[in-house]
Specification:
The termini are far apart. The strands form two sheets. The protein has a four-stranded mixed beta sheet with strand order 1-2-3-4. The chain has a four-stranded mixed beta sheet with strand order 5-6-7-8, with helices on one face. By secondary structure, it is an alpha/beta fold. α1 packs parallel to α2 and α2 runs antiparallel to α3. It is built from three helices and eight strands. It has two domains: 96 residues, Ribosome hibernation promotion factor-like (Double Stranded RNA Binding Domain, 2-Layer Sandwich); 62 residues, Sigma 54 modulation/S30EA ribosomal protein, C-terminal domain (SHC Adaptor Protein, 2-Layer Sandwich).
Length: 178
Amino acid sequence: MKTLITGRKIELEDKFRERAELKLEKIGKYLCDDADGQVNVSEAPKSFKKVEITVKSQGLVFRAEDTGADEYTVLDKLDNIIIRQIRKNKTKLARRVKEILPEIEPAATPVADYADNGEDFTVIKRKMFDIKPMTVQEAILQMDISQHKFYLFENIDTGKMSVVYVRGESGYGLIEPD
């Protein structure tokens, strides 16, 4: 597994880097050799540390983050969360590949034009990631694995960018361009 351990505006001890490497190696045992693991540590309010672990393998992304007073304790907790996600989703992936999801219907109501009310919209975070062609079912699985409420992907059936999202308790939605 390729690993990257970074501190954002914080200097990481060598001891922490070694421990993070061991944790990522442990996680790597559940995945293929081409997996990428990343641990980010940053300052959080009240002298806490925010630790994020992201592991990518064969188009799947496993992610967990938490905040605590001690980055070592948080790292141990996140390690267990990622391993639990991998175990849970290996069986879920096998089941979902065989399962056919009901066809997702796009919303019939057009969205009203936004009226500019003079508010200043500031982007506070920019995220970049590789987009791979996949089916709607694969995108929903990836969204579930990453624990996000939406997922942007290239629809393999249409060749266009699409978004799947969680619709409360009633299932999933799909946004596609005309």
